[in-house]
Amino acid sequence: MAAKLAGGGGGRYSLGQNSEINVTPFVDILLVLLIIFMVAVPMATVAIKVDLPPATPPPPNAPKPKEPVFISIQKSGALYVAEKQTSLDNLQFDLDAKFAATGQAGPKDDQRVMVRADADVTYADFMGVLNALQTAGWYKVGLINEDIH
To answer: Which of 90, 98, 126, 143 has the least C-beta neighbours within 10 A?
Structure first.
Protein backbone atom coordinates (compact mmCIF):
# COMPACT_ATOMS: atom_id res chain seq x y z
CA MET A 1 0.00 0.00 0.00
CA ALA A 2 2.82 2.34 0.75
CA ALA A 3 4.16 1.76 -2.75
CA LYS A 4 0.85 2.79 -4.23
CA LEU A 5 0.77 5.98 -2.17
CA ALA A 6 4.28 6.95 -3.11
CA GLY A 7 4.05 6.47 -6.79
CA GLY A 8 1.97 5.35 -9.71
CA GLY A 9 0.01 7.27 -12.22
CA GLY A 10 -3.12 9.26 -11.90
CA GLY A 11 -2.32 11.84 -9.32
CA ARG A 12 -0.61 12.37 -6.02
CA TYR A 13 -2.91 10.23 -3.83
CA SER A 14 -4.33 7.77 -6.36
CA LEU A 15 -4.85 4.40 -4.70
CA GLY A 16 -5.86 2.53 -7.83
CA GLN A 17 -8.70 0.07 -8.05
CA ASN A 18 -8.87 -2.99 -5.82
CA SER A 19 -10.70 -5.83 -7.57
CA GLU A 20 -10.28 -8.46 -4.84
CA ILE A 21 -13.30 -9.56 -2.75
CA ASN A 22 -12.91 -9.27 0.98
CA VAL A 23 -14.25 -12.63 2.18
CA THR A 24 -13.51 -12.20 5.87
CA PRO A 25 -16.94 -10.73 6.79
CA PHE A 26 -18.63 -13.42 4.71
CA VAL A 27 -16.77 -16.20 6.52
CA ASP A 28 -17.55 -14.61 9.89
CA ILE A 29 -21.28 -14.55 9.10
CA LEU A 30 -21.23 -18.17 7.91
CA LEU A 31 -19.49 -19.33 11.08
CA VAL A 32 -21.98 -17.49 13.28
CA LEU A 33 -24.89 -19.04 11.35
CA LEU A 34 -23.30 -22.48 11.63
CA ILE A 35 -23.04 -22.12 15.40
CA ILE A 36 -26.64 -20.90 15.65
CA PHE A 37 -27.91 -23.90 13.66
CA MET A 38 -25.76 -26.33 15.65
CA VAL A 39 -27.36 -25.03 18.86
CA ALA A 40 -30.94 -24.72 17.53
CA VAL A 41 -31.35 -28.07 15.72
CA PRO A 42 -31.03 -30.36 18.76
CA MET A 43 -33.66 -28.30 20.62
CA ALA A 44 -36.07 -28.55 17.67
CA THR A 45 -35.88 -32.36 17.56
CA VAL A 46 -36.86 -32.94 21.17
CA ALA A 47 -40.04 -35.01 21.27
CA ILE A 48 -42.75 -34.69 23.87
CA LYS A 49 -42.84 -37.84 25.95
CA VAL A 50 -46.32 -39.27 26.27
CA ASP A 51 -47.03 -42.48 28.15
CA LEU A 52 -49.72 -44.10 26.00
CA PRO A 53 -51.87 -46.88 27.44
CA PRO A 54 -51.63 -50.27 25.77
CA ALA A 55 -54.29 -51.20 23.24
CA THR A 56 -56.84 -53.65 24.52
CA PRO A 57 -59.37 -55.51 22.40
CA PRO A 58 -63.05 -54.89 23.15
CA PRO A 59 -64.75 -57.49 25.31
CA PRO A 60 -66.55 -60.23 23.36
CA ASN A 61 -70.00 -59.09 24.49
CA ALA A 62 -69.39 -55.42 23.58
CA PRO A 63 -71.85 -53.90 21.11
CA LYS A 64 -70.60 -53.63 17.57
CA PRO A 65 -70.05 -50.07 16.31
CA LYS A 66 -72.91 -48.77 14.22
CA GLU A 67 -72.56 -48.54 10.48
CA PRO A 68 -71.76 -45.04 9.22
CA VAL A 69 -73.73 -43.15 6.60
CA PHE A 70 -71.65 -42.02 3.64
CA ILE A 71 -71.88 -38.54 2.14
CA SER A 72 -70.37 -38.12 -1.33
CA ILE A 73 -69.43 -34.83 -2.96
CA GLN A 74 -68.88 -34.81 -6.71
CA LYS A 75 -66.66 -32.45 -8.67
CA SER A 76 -69.76 -30.62 -9.95
CA GLY A 77 -70.83 -29.94 -6.36
CA ALA A 78 -73.58 -32.58 -6.37
CA LEU A 79 -74.16 -33.95 -2.88
CA TYR A 80 -75.33 -37.49 -2.08
CA VAL A 81 -76.43 -39.16 1.15
CA ALA A 82 -75.76 -42.83 0.46
CA GLU A 83 -77.21 -43.13 -3.08
CA LYS A 84 -79.81 -40.35 -2.79
CA GLN A 85 -78.99 -36.92 -4.21
CA THR A 86 -79.60 -34.03 -1.84
CA SER A 87 -78.69 -30.39 -1.35
CA LEU A 88 -76.85 -28.60 1.41
CA ASP A 89 -80.12 -27.20 2.76
CA ASN A 90 -81.74 -30.65 2.95
CA LEU A 91 -78.64 -32.49 4.19
CA GLN A 92 -79.75 -32.61 7.82
CA PHE A 93 -83.21 -33.96 6.98
CA ASP A 94 -81.90 -36.57 4.55
CA LEU A 95 -79.30 -37.73 7.07
CA ASP A 96 -81.95 -38.04 9.78
CA ALA A 97 -84.12 -40.06 7.37
CA LYS A 98 -81.21 -42.34 6.42
CA PHE A 99 -80.30 -43.01 10.06
CA ALA A 100 -83.98 -43.73 10.83
CA ALA A 101 -84.18 -46.11 7.84
CA THR A 102 -81.14 -48.07 9.07
CA GLY A 103 -82.50 -48.30 12.61
CA GLN A 104 -80.03 -45.83 14.09
CA ALA A 105 -82.43 -43.05 15.01
CA GLY A 106 -81.49 -41.45 18.29
CA PRO A 107 -78.89 -39.08 19.64
CA LYS A 108 -76.47 -37.72 17.07
CA ASP A 109 -73.56 -38.44 19.41
CA ASP A 110 -73.88 -42.15 18.55
CA GLN A 111 -74.22 -41.66 14.78
CA ARG A 112 -71.19 -41.80 12.53
CA VAL A 113 -70.93 -39.93 9.23
CA MET A 114 -68.23 -40.51 6.60
CA VAL A 115 -67.51 -37.89 3.93
CA ARG A 116 -65.84 -38.69 0.64
CA ALA A 117 -65.17 -36.09 -2.01
CA ASP A 118 -63.84 -36.01 -5.53
CA ALA A 119 -60.24 -34.82 -5.75
CA ASP A 120 -61.31 -31.73 -7.72
CA VAL A 121 -64.00 -30.55 -5.28
CA THR A 122 -63.48 -26.95 -4.23
CA TYR A 123 -62.48 -26.30 -0.66
CA ALA A 124 -65.55 -24.08 -0.13
CA ASP A 125 -67.94 -26.90 -1.13
CA PHE A 126 -66.16 -29.41 1.12
CA MET A 127 -66.08 -27.09 4.13
CA GLY A 128 -69.71 -26.15 3.51
CA VAL A 129 -70.69 -29.80 4.02
CA LEU A 130 -68.53 -30.14 7.15
CA ASN A 131 -69.94 -26.91 8.60
CA ALA A 132 -73.51 -28.04 7.88
CA LEU A 133 -72.82 -31.34 9.67
CA GLN A 134 -71.34 -29.59 12.69
CA THR A 135 -74.16 -27.05 12.85
CA ALA A 136 -76.70 -29.88 12.73
CA GLY A 137 -74.97 -31.66 15.63
CA TRP A 138 -72.94 -34.45 13.99
CA TYR A 139 -69.45 -34.46 15.46
CA LYS A 140 -68.36 -38.02 14.65
CA VAL A 141 -67.36 -37.22 11.08
CA GLY A 142 -64.74 -39.21 9.24
CA LEU A 143 -62.99 -38.43 5.97
CA ILE A 144 -62.50 -41.12 3.34
CA ASN A 145 -59.41 -41.05 1.15
CA GLU A 146 -57.73 -43.35 -1.31
CA ASP A 147 -55.25 -45.91 -0.02
CA ILE A 148 -51.69 -45.33 -1.14
CA HIS A 149 -49.96 -48.62 -1.86
So the answer is: 143
Its domain, for residue 95, covers 69-143
| C-alpha 129 chain-centroid distance | 19
Number of domains, the chain: 1
Q: What are the pLDDT digits (tens) for 109-133?
A: 778 899 999 888 999 999 999 999 9
The pTM (predicted TM-score) of the whole model is: 0.57
CA-to-CA dists, residue 13 to 8, 20, 44, 114, angstroms? 9, 20, 55, 83
Whether 46 is in a domain gets the answer: no
Number of C-beta neighbours around residue 88 at 10 A = 13
